[in-house]
Amino acid sequence: MDISFFTAAVVAGTPLLFAILGELMTEKAGQLNLGVEGMMLMGAVVGFKTALITGDPFLALAGAMLAGALGALIFGVLTVSLRANQVVAGLTLTIFGTGFSSFMGQGLMGEVIPESMKLFFADFKIPLLGDIPVIGQIFFNQGMLVYTGYIAAIVAGLYLYRTSIGLNLRSVGENTAAADAAGIKVSRYKYIHILIGGLLCGLAGAYLSLVYIPSWQENVTAGRGWIAVALVIFCRWNPYRVLAGAFLFGGLDIIGFRIQKYDFHISQYMIDMLPYLVTIIILILVSAGKSSAGSPPASLGESYFREER
Amino acid sequence: MVNISKSFGDVKANDNISFSVNYGEIYSLLGENGAGKSTLVNMLSGIYTPDSGDIYVHGERLRLASPADSISSGIGMIHQHFKLINVMTAMENIAIGQEHGFLFRKKKVKDKIEDICSRYGFRLEPEKLVRDMSVGEKQTVEILKVLYRGADILILDEPTAVLTPQETERLFDILLRMKEQGCAIIIITHKLHEVMEISDRVSVLRRGEIAGTVNTQETSPMELTSMMVGKKVTLSIERPPVKSDDIMLEVRDLSLIDRDSIKKLDRVSFSVRAGEILGVAGVAGSGQKELCESIQGLERRKRGGILFKGENISHLTPRAIFEKGLRISFIPEDRLGMGLVPTMDLVDNVILKDYYLQKGIFLDREPARQRAEHIVKMLNVHTPSIYHPVNKLSGGNIQKVLLGREIDSAPDFLVTAYPTRGLDIGSAHLIYDELNRQKERGVGILYVGEDLNILLSLCDRIMVMFEGRIIGTVDAATATKEELGLMMLGEVTGGVNSND
Questions:
Q1: In a domain, B238, yes or no
Q2: Distance of CA B30 to the CA centre of its chain
Q3: Model's pTM, two decimal places?
Q4: Which of A179, A298, A309 sits opposite B97 (nearest CB)?
Q5: Are B349 and B405 in contact (CB under 8 A)?
Q6: Rounded mean pLDDT of A88-95?
Q7: Which of A87, B81, B402, B490 has the highest count of CB atoms within 10 angstroms of its CB?
């Protein structure tokens, strides 16, 4: 397989990268948001429409992220302030987001991103790093958003493991009551990180509709939001591992196209199944593995009410 | 605290309570379960907000709306159930929620922790993960967490409930040192001898009200008890002799390895006669839970034999054992998790064990209702009605419901783990009496306990576990607390017969 496959795998993995990071941040605050797919779709359609109307890439990205954050805000109000069941709230958000994008996307079918914006997102080589053989070609001859993805993962890692706020955040997710007793403003942490999660999921959606496709099609995410939720488990809630997980699944995503070149007699449908199949297998392996290593934040999915007895 | 009141729904947890604590003083809050001790101090720590009344610190009126407010007023709370994060180190647990710049600077935190350690005489490994710690170490982390925040008013909720005598001794030394340094210390407890040993003043709470405040030197355990219960009670526990030599339960070379490949039980062998109470002592996590669950048939990964009345039951499920007509009752450590369904009422909890023996598709609740009423009457359970969800009852009453249900099935063997944990003296003695009644009926009892005084006076023999092994078995009539304490730490002392 040639190098261009790996380069394409990074591109295909980037929307996953943003979405996984977003869900990871949310889960670190103890909130399980299953609305990733919905927030991505909201981001995708708002980003695309803003791009068509304004032609400004920054406005398009900002619009997409705000749309994702709006979805997350709904989830936050439901689960943090009203203490609704997180699974139900997340599923609802996905259904809402899907409907929202279909509705907003009416008449967008077949529209294409203006050339000026394509140029903005085009690949460029990073000096020095881009000259490294193989690695340079795979990782450092990419578009601006792919680089943003690398930085986001590393910043998230530093934030979680090197800052005081990150320490507080992890404690909220691990043991909300302990964090509260230690004087941490639990609700504030939860809201902020749910919103950060929404921003990142919106960005992931925008990457699909603005850069990856880049024209409008119904249901652009095609289940990537769900894969992202599962990959948080695969990456064991560690932002650095997200880089590996996202690009691995990016590869699985495009392997179907690539394999057509060769004379394999496998049904196209089987190959399209691959990322989903591997997700299921990984979930089984992770769940069956040793209990203690890489376990989820202990308070994940629990509503917190201080005066509960 | 002046005229504090707090209600949960219809229940008045605290009614018009006032008390004060001075700096350089150790002050005890003593009371039965459900008397409102924890509720009262949780208002000091900002977890609950009072319905009415005022809180003054240094003469200044405070509104404590959150734990953050409470911490900034110099109040530090050490909760009964530790509020620690298992996957983090001691140091990280201590540092959470603290303002110390954007970056988490390990060095600075570590220095400050070591400084506090040397001032008060703590021993602690800052880089150790909380999940690898013993209960005593975890408590040290909790205390350090409070001191790190510069608290000079310390509240300890049942601090000795899970400690060995040696650890308790060390904790008391530390508390005395803090007192000398001018801290105000509030201890919540229901252990009378601790109140007498360490505190300067004591207030007794009864049903949400203060029954009285006295200087420790001017009172006696008897007086305190009658204040707590509201009537005179006897504190002695009877020990009827064992009448039978028939072996009820025999365990042979029982081993258990858990999911993480850690050996939880290591070739455990012992036997219990009919009408005998065999006590199990040991630091928490020495394999007691695994032992109980193995006997009950809940643990499937074990090796070795469990003979019940001569029949091997080691590979049967709880229901298979039940269907063979062998009645083993289990009163687990985790009452609401394993013993009862928290949100169901008394009747439904009673019906749980044998509903499937009924014919037809609909349940007949009538027999269960009668049994629930019988249990309420027999054990004097305080509940608004038998249709009240059990998680709304106090710990002692929950335990009575569970014990009542298990005894009601006329068991041959009773496995109990910490049946009086968190219970007040009155309720605890009710339970000891009931266990003795079962013993006289010829029931074999395995009693996992933590209070050595109780183990020594209730049990016939005491078996000490350490890291999944049996360190030794002693005759409760002749053994001493110190001997048991040393064995709990893994030291084999003289005069110990391993098994009989």
A1: no
A2: 16
A3: 0.78
A4: A179
A5: yes
A6: 96
A7: B402
